[in-house]
């Protein structure tokens, strides 16, 4: 079973950058979607970015042009580069994975989850 561990969260000023990492316990080489979600207190979990086994990426409208999802298969690691951060980006960020060919933004689509890493953006 896949285990995911996020790292890289922290506190930054608005306009700053962070890079989140998600280390997988094994190489996910068979129809796996990888994704980043985030959840702020009192709000539902929302999809941020996805990447498929074929490299296809998708982004929430709120982060397009600012966030970039990528993966290093050799290191079994998923990344989320976050630039031009805004206070509204403040949330717990979660890495997720699922062996499916088409990657959506619904949390119900993903069976494997990391523990989360906190991102706080101050003004």
Description:
- Helix content is 0%, strand content 48%.
- It is built from no helices and 11 strands.
- It has strands at residues 4-7, 10-13, 18-24, 33-39, 46-51, 57-59, 67-72, 77-82, 91-98, 112-113, 117-122.
- Strands 2, 4, 5, 6, 9, 10 and 11 form a 7-stranded mixed β-sheet that branches. A 4-stranded antiparallel β-sheet has the order 1-3-8-7, with no helix packed on it.
- Strand 4 and strand 5 (46-51) form a beta hairpin.
- It starts with a strand and ends with a strand.
- The mean pLDDT is 94.
Short recap of the structure:
This protein has strands at 4-7, 10-13, 18-24, 33-39, 46-51, 57-59, 67-72, 77-82, 91-98, 112-113, 117-122.
